[in-house]
Design brief:
Layout lengths: L1 E5 L5 H9 L4 E5 L2 H9 L5 E8 L3 E2 L1 H9 L5 E8 L3 E4 L1 H5 L6 E4 L1 H6 L1 H7 L5 E3 L3 H10 L5 E5 L1 H7 L2 E4 L9 E7 L12 E12 L7 H10 L5 E8 L7 E7 L7 H11 L3 E12 L8
Parallel strand pairs: 1-2, 1-3, 5-15, 7-8, 7-9
Antiparallel strand pairs: 3-4, 3-11, 5-11, 6-9, 6-10, 12-14, 12-15, 13-14
EC number: 4.2.1.51
Protein name: Prephenate dehydratase
Catalytic activity: prephenate + H(+) = 3-phenylpyruvate + CO2 + H2O
Length: about 290
């Protein structure tokens, strides 16, 4: 089985994919949309994509592409603790050079904002497709006085030195990833810890129904279905038009969730199931960081 992840080698997405599918072939992809396209075209069986971060919130490119371009079912979820490292090439360290630029993914740079402001305020930042692609660039350009932010896996993969360790602004920083596959296919997923079960729905409200969102929430509330997340994203059909992605803290059952869906459809809402799946973690989240 081939499993895609946001590459190159050494990303947090690879860490998630490797933990869930230790015996499968992992295939790095240049972008998140490309990895999803390859599942749709049968080049990959599954892909692992980031969906939410503790600090920066939702990864909108994943959510929007899943909704508007490649409607792939969610097979599983996994949470990874994020520890960011400040890396430089050993040659630059030997010369005693200070970094003139800092490369990384926009999310990683935002997660380390306080550190960069306090330590390297005058070094401009540059965005890359992933933290690992920044590390890969550093490894292939040893003469450049540049640093990057990536994880320890990337440091080992590309022979870089950790100059500053664990520079993220919050110790509780975590990213949640989704495993996406194809409709009707079953796959075995393994990880050290099971967090919970989850069902994700996409709901489009009727345009001519006053108080529709309140009615949507009521349909879940009186059935005592706990909603762990409500996300609104534009439908791309006009200003003020949004759909809502809702996470319910249980798998699809025979009564409660189908009953809520039927009630919403009577109100004129369009309801689509994005996935009903188990969420895992690579660490024990019951322990304090």
């Amino acid at each position: 089985m081939k499993v895609g992840f946001l590459g190159p080698k050494g990303t947090f997405t690879e860490m998630a994919a490797r933990a869930l599918f230790p015996d499968e072939e992992l295939v790095p992809c240049q972008t998140i949309p490309l990895s999803m396209d390859k599942v749709s075209s049968n080049e990959l069986d599954l892909t692992v994509v980031p969906i939410e971060n503790t600090i920066e919130g939702s990864v909108n490119i994943t959510l929007d592409y899943l909704i508007h371009k490649q409607r792939l079912p969610i097979i599983a979820g996994v949470t990874v603790t994020i520890a960011q490292q400040f890396l430089m090439h050993p040659i630059q360290i030997e010369k005693g050079n200070q970094p003139e630029r800092v490369l990384s993914h926009p999310q990683a740079l935002a997660q380390c904002h306080d550190f960069l402001k306090e330590t390297y305020e005058n070094a401009p930042v540059e965005y890359t497709n992933s933290t690992a692609s920044a590390a890969e660039w550093l490894a292939t350009n040893p003469a450049e006085p540049v640093a990057c932010i990536a994880n320890e896996l990337a440091a080992k993969e590309y022979g870089l030195t950790v100059v500053h360790k664990d520079i993220q602004d919050y110790s509780s920083n975590r990213t949640r990833f989704l495993v996406l596959g194809r409709q009707g296919e079953q796959h075995t997923v393994t990880a050290p810890y099971i967090i919970s079960d989850r069902t994700t729905l996409m709901i489009t409200l009727p345009e001519d129904y006053t108080g529709a969102l309140h009615q949507v929430l009521s349909a879940f509330a009186w059935r005592k279905l706990n909603l762990s997340k409500i996300e609104s994203r534009p439908t791309k059909t006009g200003l003020g038009n949004y759909y809502f992605v809702i996470d319910i803290d249980q798998k699809m059952d025979d009564t409660l969730i189908p009953g809520a869906i039927s009630e919403l459809e009577v109100l004129g809402c369009k309801v689509e199931l994005l996935g009903s799946y188990t969420c895992y973690s690579l660490t024990d989240l019951t322990k304090k960081s």
